[in-house]
Amino acid sequence: MKSIEPFIRDINDFPKPGIVFKDLTPLLNSPEGTDLCLQELLKQIDGAKVDKVVGMEARGFFFGTLIAKALGVGFIPVRKPGKLPYNTISETYALEYGSDVLEIHEDAISPGDRVLIHDDVLATGGTAAAVCKLVERLGGKIVQCNFIMELEFLRGSEKLKPNHVASVLKY
């Protein structure tokens, strides 16, 4: 089986010294890599019934929309404050130094909708945990949180319990 790993580029000392950034742009630039990644993300769902796919701004939009189209379901963007044009609900979450806020349209999810949450990378889990709270506040049932890659040493999946977490690559 082919891996998407050759399509991921390491960038040393970005965004600051000592960090090795996992760059997805070569993956996005390759139709073969994009298709391979999409197929791997779909395999992770393993036939589970999904009504909506939620993707986080902005890199979660790349494959979130592709997953939704492949599943024949709607895509819901979660964005920073002031970016969505209709009524929203928001969730504040902690960052290393400070906090941030995410918003979702208040009518994006109906009670009982089965929701797949997608983003590119699971690091500390703060963003994904905030999105889980937004989905649950709207009455959605989280099927899975899925990611292209997971930085296991940061233990982000612990913040997402009891939700199922799946990642194509783990570092």
Describe this structure in words.
The structure is a single chain. The chain is of the alpha/beta class and 171 residues long. It has one domain: Rossmann fold. It is built from four helices and nine strands, in the order E-E-H-H-E-H-E-E-E-E-H-E-E. It has helices at 25-28, 31-45, 60-71, 126-137; strands at residues 9-12, 20-23, 52-56, 74-78, 88-95, 98-105, 114-122, 141-150, 165-170. It has a five-stranded parallel beta sheet with strand order 4-3-7-8-9, with helices on both faces. It has a two-stranded antiparallel ribbon with strand order 1-2. Strands 5-6 form a two-stranded antiparallel sheet. Strand 5 (88-95) and strand 6 form a beta hairpin. Helix 2 crosses helix 3 (60-71). It is globular, with a radius of gyration of 16 Å.
Keywords:
171 residues, alpha/beta, Rossmann fold, five-stranded parallel beta sheet, two-stranded antiparallel ribbon, 4 helices, 35% strand, globular, cytoplasm, Ade_phspho_trans, adenine binding, UPRTase/APRTase, transferase
Shape: globular
Strand content: 25-35%
The helix/strand series, from N terminus to C terminus, equals EEHHEHEEEEHEE
Count of folded domains: 1
* Number of extended strands: 9
**Count of discrete alpha- or pi-helical segments spanning 4 or more residues:** 4
Q: Indicate the CATH class.
A: Alpha Beta
List segments where confidence is low: pLDDT < 50 over at least 5 consecutive residues: none
Family: Belongs to the purine/pyrimidine phosphoribosyltransferase family.
InterPro entries: Ade_phspho_trans, PRTase-like, PRTase_dom, UPRTase/APRTase
Protein name: Adenine phosphoribosyltransferase
Subcellular location: Cytoplasm
